[in-house]
Fold this sequence. Notes:
By secondary structure, this protein is α+β, with helices and mostly antiparallel strands. The protein is built from 4 helices and 5 strands, in the order H-E-E-H-E-E-E-H-H. The strands form 2 sheets. A 3-stranded antiparallel sheet has the order 3-4-5. A two-stranded antiparallel ribbon has the order 1-2. The longest helix is centred in the C-terminal third of the chain and has 20 residues, at about 125-140.
Amino acid sequence: MWMRKNCPDISFERFADDVVCHCTSEAQANWLKVMIEERFAECRLELHPQKTKIVYCKDDDRRGSYSHEQFDFLGYTFRPRLSKNRHGKFFVNFSPAVSNEATKSIRKTMREWRLYRRSDKSLEDLSGMFNPVLRGWITYFKSYCGQRSCYL
């Protein structure tokens, strides 16, 4: 509510205590950071110093450099990536993919299933046990990728 009231032209996404604000310039981002710090201080809260950062969304149209050019949000890493348009031409786009942390977590979970110890199970049993989890991961991480493959 505070963002809508005090910064109506700045779009943002929030999930629990994680927020991404879309600023149009570094000056606007610095101003917003100060405003949020003041608001948090009123509520006796503070921003996490390592997690709070201004990120430059580098792509073909924004070719400058900045100390932070990627960030993680909700299991995705947003960073400059090579993409291909519908005409087959390559370009740099600031886009998401599964984060390294999420990938490690998925691998850890799959190792915990200990499939090599389940030789007593049929393929149908294994698919019944694990397909819902696998489908959940694919559905979640494919939401940004459309019909392209999302590398898990």
